[in-house]
What we know:
alpha+beta; four-stranded antiparallel beta sheet
Amino acid sequence: MKAIGSAMIFGLLLCMVGVAYAGEQDSLPPVSDLALEMSCKSNMRTLATALSMYLSEFGTYPDSLPMLTDAGVAHGVPPIHLLECPACDSVYLYLTDGESFTLVCPCDSLHGSIVDGTASW
Ligand SMILES: [Zn+2]
C-alpha cells in the first residue's frame, strides 16, 4: 500500500513538472532579432569563405553569388539559403570587379558588410 502511494505521488510530481515545462515553452519569445543578426553574420562569413575558395580555384571572384553553388566547387559551397539574410529574406548585395568584393546585408537592420574578407563588425 505504501509503494502504491509513493508511485502516485511520483506520478503526480511528474505531471506537475510536465505542466510547468509546457507552460514555460509557451512563454518563450519567437526567434529574437539578435539570433537573426547572428545567423546573418554567420551566413556572410560563410559566403566570404566560399568566395575566397572560389578565388583560389578560378583566379577571380564569381560575377554573382549563385555562381558559388552553380560552379560545383567541391568544398565550402554554401547551401542556397545562405544567399539570403534570414531577417528579411532578401538576397545579399554583392559587388565585385573580380579582384575584390563587397558583401552587404540587404536589410534595414544594419547587420553589416564584408569587404575583401574583412567584416564591418
Ligand atoms: Zn542581415
